[in-house]
């Protein structure tokens, strides 16, 4: 009559052993074992909204504060736009793949976000599209990207998104030709892009790799 008792006792010991093994495995895995969270649709939409809004804001500010002699920005020939944007988008796609490679996991949010940032930078040509006088590339500015990253750090609070925006910005500059005002809207003195294109491309790749590593080791403590 004592056999059922021993069977129950053995079952309890086995159950406790399984719980103990699971707990031990969890402790060995450590807090860093949680899978890194990718970039979701909401984050993509909010980040693109912030980036695009900041481009337009800097462009609008430039219309009022830029000296009259710097209001010489023109809109590129329409026939050249598709090819130019294709190059920008392709470079952004490549950077998205670099981020995914550094993270060791493909993230489709990045496949959308990085090219979007790269292309959205050209929204600062919008006044010229409307036939208005404007300074050259008012949002192709170091001040612009620093302010944008600061805003993203406040609203989105994801280091990987901030690094991706930096990567996309410098990638865009590495494709452009002509001149740009790096200190707009404080100063509209133009500098030649040509001599900085290789450093800009290197910066874009470096920030993309940093973004991938940040995603790999992040548990996503952001709000979005």
Short synopsis of the structure:
The chain is mostly helical and 224 residues long.
User: How is the biggest beta sheet arranged?
Assistant: 2 strands, antiparallel
The average pLDDT score comes to 83
Helix content: 55-70%
Tally of DSSP β-strands: 2
Q: For the record, give the distance between the C-alpha atoms at the N and C termini, rounded to a whole number.
A: 61 Å
Give the domain tally: 1
**If strands are numbered along the chain, what order do they take across the biggest sheet?**
1-2
Class based on secondary structure composition and strand pairing: mainly alpha
Q: Strand portion, in percent?
A: under 5%
The ordered string of helix (H) and strand (E) elements is HHHHHHHEEH
Poorly predicted runs are 5-11, 17-35
Radius of gyration from CA coordinates? 25 Å
Oligomer: single chain
The number of helical segments is 8
- Overall geometry comes to globular
What does it look like?
There is one protein chain. By secondary structure, this protein is an all-alpha fold. It has one domain. Helix content is 64%, strand content 2%. It is built from eight helices and two strands; from the N terminus they run αααααααββα. It has helices at residues 3-29, 41-65, 81-103, 108-120, 126-129, 142-155, 159-175, 197-216; strands spanning 179-180, 191-192. Strands 1-2 form a two-stranded antiparallel ribbon. Helix 3 (81-103) packs antiparallel against helix 4. The chain is globular. The chain starts with a helix and ends in an 8-residue tail after the last helix.
